[in-house]
Amino acid sequence: MTAHELVIEGLHAGVDGREILRGVDLTVRSGEVHAVMGPNGSGKSTLSHVLAGKPGYHVTAGSVTLDGVDLLALAPWERAHAGLFLAMQYPVEVPGVSLIDALSESMVASGRSVDGLLEAIRAEAASIGFDERFLDRPLNVDLSGGEKKRNETVQLGILDPAIAVLDEIDSGLDVDALRDVSRRIEAMTSEEGLGVLVITHYNRVLHELHPDRVHVLSRGRIAAEGGPELALELETTGYAGYAEEPEPAATPPAGLFDPFALP
Ligand code: ADP
Ligand code: MG
Predict the structure, then answer these.
(1) For the chain, N or C: smaller number of CB within 10 Å?
(2) pLDDT at residue 261 greater than cutoff 70
(3) What does R_g of the chain's alpha carbons equal in angstroms?
C-alpha cells in the first residue's frame, strides 16, 4: 500500500473578485478521515469546488498538491487521473451515459484494464445494497438522494483513488444509505488506505463515518481543530462562536430613495 498525501497550503480563493477562502491549511494522508465542518456560508462548498477545479472559482494564493503534484494546474479529469475523487453535494445528471459506461471510460482513460469490471461493479453495488437495475440506467437521472450517493460510492470503490473529497455526503440520505455508504468508505480507509476529506454542515454523518481529525471552517479560515470530540462538542454548542459569513449589505444606488435610511 503506497502512502499518499493531499496538502492544502495557505489557500485563498474566491468568486467574482470576492474572497471566500482566506488561507486554508489542511493535510490528508492515506488511511485518515478528516472532517471539515462549519456554519452555512463559511466556504465549505467553495473548498470542494476549488479542489474539483469548477469554472468560475479563482485561486489567488496558496497551493494544493497530491503526492507533490500541483493539482491546481490540472484540468478536472487530470485531477481524477492523479488520484483525487470528488463527490459533489449535488451530483450531475448525465443523460445517455450509464454508470457502467462512465466507469469503463474512466478505467480506459487511466490506462487500466476493464477485465472483470462488470463483476467488480456488481460486487460493489451489492456490498452497499444498490440495486443492479441502476447500473445501466442514465447516470443520476431520476435517482433519489440516497441512490445518487450509493452510485458515487460504487464509483469510489471501482476507481480506487488515493484521496476522496465528499461534500455533504449526508444530504438527502436516509439512515440505511448513510450507514451502508459509511461502512464501505471506512472499509476502503482501513483496508486499502483511502484518505478521506468529508465536508459537512451536520454532525450526523460523523456518527457513522468516524473522523480522525475535525477542522472547523469559519469565514474562510480553519478556526479550530481537534479530534472526534470536537464534532461532539459542536453537536451541543452548535456553531455559536463561529461567525457566519454576513451577506454583503446592498447599498441603493446614489440618488434613489432608500426607505430604510436613517434620517
Ligand atoms: P458553505 O458551503 O460553507 O455553506 P459556500 O462555500 O457555499 O459555503 O459559500 C461561502 C460564501 O461564498 C457565501 O457567502 C456564499 O454566498 C458565497 N458564494 C459561494 N459561491 C458563490 C458564487 N458562485 N458567487 C458568489 N458568491 C458565492
Ligand atoms: Mg455547502
Answers:
(1) C
(2) no
(3) 20
Cell of 104: 469503463
CA distance 263 to 252: 15
Q: Which residue has the cell 488515493?
A: 162
Rama region for 78: left / alpha / beta (φ>0; ψ in -120 to 50; rest):
alpha
Pocket of ligand 1 (CB under 6 A): 15-16, 18, 20, 38, 40-46, 245
Residues with CB under 5 Å of ion ligand 2 are 44-45
Cα 25 to averaged position of ligand 2 atoms, centre (Å) = 19
**Which has more confidence, 98 or 57?**
57
Single pTM value for the model:
0.87
pLDDT confidence band for 248 (50 / 70 / 90): low
